[in-house]
Amino acid sequence: MGHAIFEQRSGILGVAVVTACGVIRPEQLAGLGELPKKVSVLGMKLTTRQTLIFLINEADLTVFQQEIQKIGLQIGVFGNIVRNVKGCAGSDQWCRRSFGDAFGLGVRIQEQFMNQPAPKDFKISTAGCPRGCTDPYCADFGVIAVGADRFDIYLGGRGGSKVPRHGQRILEQISGEQVMKVLDFVLQKYRQLGEENERLCRVIDRCGIDSFIPAPDVYIDEHSQPEELDDFSAFLAGQ
Description:
five-stranded antiparallel β-sheet, five-stranded mixed β-sheet, 7 helices, Sulfite Reductase Hemoprotein, domain 2, globular
């Protein structure tokens, strides 16, 4: 586990900076524009994981870290941990095709779970519709919006491989709050059942998908009523 800072073959450093699921606020953009005045930025690249890779000299690393922190961004993480969330723009503000606020949920997941330990690097993706622009079907934990505060969860996908695989849908039509509880459960099970450096899909192959499907009482508040029961109660009250 550690920061996503890598020495390249050329001897310069590649430093990954994490964004809020690909979104940079105007003041952060302005701050990034000022960086070359304070450190020698040799190049910058947007990655498919919605991070920014900066090429800098090793001598500038400390100042670079300080300046990135000042503008409200942070150095990425790498290793056997929960990685930054790959979240699509799915929300009323960012994408008209979105069924639900996958962007807001992705940011919340990243803030709560990023950098937690795992047997192998654990990748999460959220998408606002079944098109899945952020590859939720090929993530360890994929979340797809299917309605207002309603999401399906896919587990055990794997991209970036010669033999990519789609995850299995384990839950349908659950709320964003319930997604958070399910993810916490899945990570606990993964740490319990997974061997060192074993991807989640391999653990599922070995232990079965049922080991990772929580019982309803894990993520459903027993004091809350399903919407249809609430509607029926309102109907009875009106009689």
